[in-house]
Amino acid sequence: MNDLKNFSLLYPSLGEEAEHYSGKGVPNISMEELSELGLLEFLNPESRDLSEYFTMSTEVMNYRREMFRDMLDFEDLGRMLNSVIPILSDIGELRRLEADSGNAEDYLMCITEIELYISSIDLLKRYLIPLRGKLKSEAFKTLAERIYELSESDYYKELNVKLNELTNRVREIKSVTIGVNLDAQLRATEAGVLSINAEKFRSGDVLDKILHIGQKNDGYTCIASLVPFGKKQNENQKTALSLAFNSAINDVYRSSLRSWKKIVQTYVLENTDFLLNLMPEIEFIGKATAMMRALEEKGCKLITPTIVPMEEGKFIAKDLYNPCVALKIDDEVVPNDVDFDENASIFVLTGPNRGGKSVITCAIGLAQAMMQLGMFVPAAEATISPVDGIFTHFPTGSEDTIDKGRLGEECARLMGIFDKITKNSLVLLDESLSSTGSYEASYIAAEVLAGLAKYKCRCLFSTHLHELAAEIDRINERSEREGGGRIDTLVAGIYDGKRSFKIVRAKPDGKSYARDIAEKYGLTYDNIVKRIK
Which CATH class is domain 298-532? Predict the structure, then answer.
């Protein structure tokens, strides 16, 4: 029988999972970076931070992609996971209540947990068993086999029989007889359960009871009208009565509880634990699948990338697009080819405002992140190396600028990136150093690029500093002498005066962008003359 105590939908082995949670093989990708890339808007699990699911292991990524392929191919798997989450949430809440009460032998809670456990197994069986011969991923094939074996086992069948017996006994309970001792002032001093009954009490009248008018002396007819439970009682009083009732049930059925306690502890608790452990994974899988399915429904391509070793430092993508933009707009997104290879690992991207620079910058980060979550990549083709971290430097507000000033704050953030990166990192800079004049910004940007070239990491520097391109040859000469990486330039194109949103590998022409902006706002000499006339 397959052992699911250490089973995971996201990790192919106990060793891989243990290594991940020890911190080994986990890339430095923070929630702040994910927010700046825009991913959290569409994929933000509640039970754990998304940053906890990133991996650098090719084996883990392949394992997850097979699982996601099954999720996309069989919609019933998504329905199954969505249906089982509320049940697992109830089990978790029940465990919390048991821990708070300190009473691990609560009869009613034990029955409820068994009912929830059986419901979850029956639900998983209903969806998984018909797919047993069709599933491709090891994750779901293993889960389907284990659920089938569990549901067909003698233990599970015995558990169902026991549960039916126990619930029937509880359903027979219609009332509780309580004895109360009073003091001289008729105040209750002590109380105890006399009996648990299979018949309900009925309203009566004290005079009729004394005279036996139309009443049988059966012990279940009250001498006054029954009062609804909780009426004119505060919450503490209601809770006290409920606790007293549950205590009575436990006292009467304590012997029954002891007789099957071993079954609960060694069988049910063990198996509900494996389901509860899967709950965060199920939430992540469900939300990631929903995002990819939404892209497919819009006609956007999603492919399995070719993963090459980290040391190769590759990011080659054909028809790459930004999935978050694709999900927001009705029009088709413009795809682009991106090629970080041995010819250049750092690119300076220039172009007109609103020409797609920020969109492609985020697209690269999103494709890298989605791959290292085990998801499919938004492109037609892709060959990508894992990275040990994604670091972003995007436009920010005015926080932390009182002491440093905005330029100082930008420089401090950039310096923080240099403290973390390696040659295997991905750095994305979007309109960095926009808080100062072009001369100062170009000087600092050139120094930053030279430093990044020394690291040989992958970097896209999207900038309004068109004159920075003139510095690239000088930086490359220095970098080549010192054994650093190469820098090249990209341009967000304009054709026939319109933004094409196409990114091409070329030298920038700053004048054309200035002319484009001047024409957009009517600030050409000809237009000004017309306005004067």
Answer: alpha beta
